[in-house]
Structures are given as structure tokens and as C-alpha cells.
Amino acid sequence: MTVLVLTCKQDVTADMVVTELHERGVPLVRLDPADLPGEVALSAEYVRGDFHGHLSTSGRLVSMCGLRSIWVRRPGTPGADVTEQTAWVTAECEQALYGVLRCTDARWMNHPDAAARARYKPWQLQAAHRSGFAVPATVITTFPKVARQFAENHQDLIVKPISGTHPTDPPMALPTTRIPPDVDFTEVAAGPTLLQQHIPKLADIRLTCVGEQMFAARKASDPGQVDGRFAENDHTWEAAEMPARIAQAVRAYMRAARLAYGAFDFAEDNEGTWWFLECNQGGQFGFIQLATGQPIAEAVATWLALDET
Amino acid sequence: MRPFALNYARPAAPTPAAPPYAYDSTRQLNVLSDGRPAACEREVLLASGATVSTAGSKTHFDD
């Protein structure tokens, strides 16, 4: 039985898992959906109630019924290399590839349907609250008046993208940013805006959950620091103890989200409370493993290699 | 009217230099010029920055 890895070629974090799988002798096929059609080819036939088919890339051929697990890591968009009717070809490729893969009995990390839902920030915050996490007060609005009222109520606020993406035309970075309560909110009307109660933090926490395994890491924050990804300091990630109630809440969240993998971000305040900021269903773990030595790639490989048949 | 959040945008980081490894389709992972897997070289990975959390990176937003 084969592990199918869907990711781009330059993904060295995937390499960390591929290396583990090689060492265990687990068959795998790695491909980037962006290379379909072309370097990646597929064929599937509907015969008496079932799809039988195969994928091929770089001289490898894998039967759809021979897949034990599918790891959706950093796949490119199908049809990326076509030059005619690109959007239509992309839609055709996505339907063909992910449609046929949905017909297999393979285990997913993560299933595309679960991943799609788990990307929505409002859904994350609701699921986090229901799972038992502390969640900062948040508003998403296009009403300047609502934004002003929220600022009056909470005083200390941050603004961040709802989608988690950054502007691309032209390319810009949009860090989570602290804003003064008396700022002019008129431009909130120009696009949905996410405002959140600012949590003064002692540290950032990244908790990586792989199946039933959890790896917590902590990185101290400078006073007033908001977005650790854009901070320049000498603080490093270190393995951290996880409060029992956090582990319980993570398990509840993962069940609700139907995720096999999730990277949780928390802000640790001066009372030791871990405030839920987000759960990224495809979050990076390479930098955490390199800094802490936590065997996350090994855990991913173990999950993918598990043969439940 | 400019969306409110864009008032806090800053110039994107410059595109990183090409990494010192390349994908080997036979081994299904990236290798250095001497054939060693890049994933086994901690210093190379740290220097390339390819494993860091860069939400909203050029091609992916799942970080």
C-alpha cells in the first residue's frame, strides 16, 4: 500500500517526512497537482459501481485502490502550466484528480472538505470556543459604526486578515497589527475587516497536533510585540509543557474539525492563559522541529504509514 | 476607498535567493549538489528559511 504525497517540488518540509518513509521502506508517490496535465497523468474508469484508476509521474505508477493514505501538504493548483483556457482546465483537473481520489478508501491528512471548512476564521473561533479554548473578542464587519463601538468596548485592538493571506497585486505583507482605539474606521466600509481584542502576551505558543500526538513549543515575546512572524529578536522556539485542559480542548477541536493535522497558535498572557488565535490545518512544522528537536516529521510519517486495512 | 486593513500593510519581503538544492524525482526529495538530502542538513534548512512560518507566502497560505 502506497502513501500519496501531494505537494510542490521545493517543499523541503515534505522531504523531512519522505526521508522517514524511505527509512521505513514505505512505498510512496510524491507529485504536484500543478503538473497535471503533463508530468502527472491520471486515468480512472467507472466499472460496476466503482472507480478503478491510476496516477503516474516520473515513471511511477500507483493504483488508486493501492493508496493507504493521502497527505495534502502544499499542492499547487492543477493546470498551472497550460496556456489555453487556464481556468477551465484547472477546474477540469481539480474535478478529475480530487474527485477520483475521493472515491478511494485512503485516509486523508487532511481531507479537502475538512480543510476547506477549517480555513474559515469565523468557523475556527466558534469551534475553538466550543472546544473549551479562551478566545479573544472578535468582530468582522463592514460597518464603521460597529467597528467604532467595538473599539470603545475593548480599547486595545489588533487588525489582521480574515483569510490569512496577504495582498498580491502588488505583493505586500499584512502582519497582525495593533491599532489605536481612536483610529478613523471609515474605510472599514471598503472591505470586511477583522478586529480583535489585543492579548498582551509573554510568549507565542505553537502546538502541532498529528493524529493523537501533540507537540507544544513556546517562544518568548518582546514587550508590545504583536506578530512574532515579523519580529526581529533573539528569542527561539523551545519545547513546552502543555496544560491538560489545553490537550483536552485540542482533541475536541480536531474531532469537530475532522482534521488529522493542525497547527494551533496561541498567545500566552501573564496569567499563563493560552488564548486561541487560529488553527492552521496545513501549518508549517519544519521550523519547530529544527528548533526544538520534536519528532513531528516522524509522527506524520507514522500516521501516514499506518495500515488500517 | 482603500480597505481599512491595507493601511497596515508593508512592502513584501524580497524573494529569497535560489536554495542550494534541487528536486530529484527519482528519490522524490530535494538534494544538494553532492547528493545528500537537503532535509538531513539542519544548517541548510535554517539558512534557506524554507521551513519557517510565512503565512501568506507567494504560493501558499497554509503556514
What can you tell me about this protein's structure?
The complex is a heterodimer of chains A (309) and B (63). In chain A, 29% of the residues lie in helices and 30% in strands. With 309 residues, chain A is an alpha+beta fold. Chain A folds into three domains: 2-109, 3-Layer(aba) Sandwich (Rossmann fold); 117-133 and 200-294, D-amino Acid Aminotransferase, Chain A, domain 1; 138-197, 2-Layer Sandwich (Dna Ligase, domain 1), CATH 3.30.1490. In chain A, the strands form four sheets. Chain A has a five-stranded antiparallel β-sheet with strand order 15-14-13-16-17, with helices on both faces. The radius of gyration of chain A is 21 Å and the shape is globular. Chain B is α+β, with helices and mostly antiparallel strands. Chain B has a domain at 19-51. Chain B has one helix and three strands. Chain B has one helix at 42-48; strands at residues 10-11, 21-24, 29-32. A two-stranded antiparallel sheet of chain B has the order 2-3. At the A-B interface, α1, β2, β10 and α7 of A face β1 and α1 of B. β10 of chain A pairs antiparallel with β1 (10-11) of chain B, so a sheet runs across the interface. Chain A: GO terms for molecular function: ribosomal S6-glutamic acid ligase activity.
Query: What characterizes the major β-sheet of chain B?
Result: 2 strands, antiparallel
Any idea of the CATH class of the largest domain in chain A? Alpha Beta
Full CATH superfamily name of the largest domain in chain A: ATP-grasp fold, B domain
The whole-number mean of residue pLDDT values of chain A reads 95
- Give the rounded overall mean pLDDT of chain B: 84
Question: What helical percentage do the residues of chain B reach?
Answer: 10-25%
Order of SSEs of chain B: EEEH
Chain pair sharing the greatest interface? A-B, 59 and 43 residues
Radius of gyration of chain B: 16 Å
Question: What is the rounded Rg of chain A?
Answer: 21 Å
Shape of chain A: globular
Class based on secondary structure composition and strand pairing of chain B:
alpha+beta
Protein name (chain B): ATP-grasp-modified RiPP
Protein name (chain A): ATP-grasp ribosomal peptide maturase
Domain MvdD-like pre-ATP grasp (chain A): 2-111
Pfam families (chain A): ATPgraspMvdD
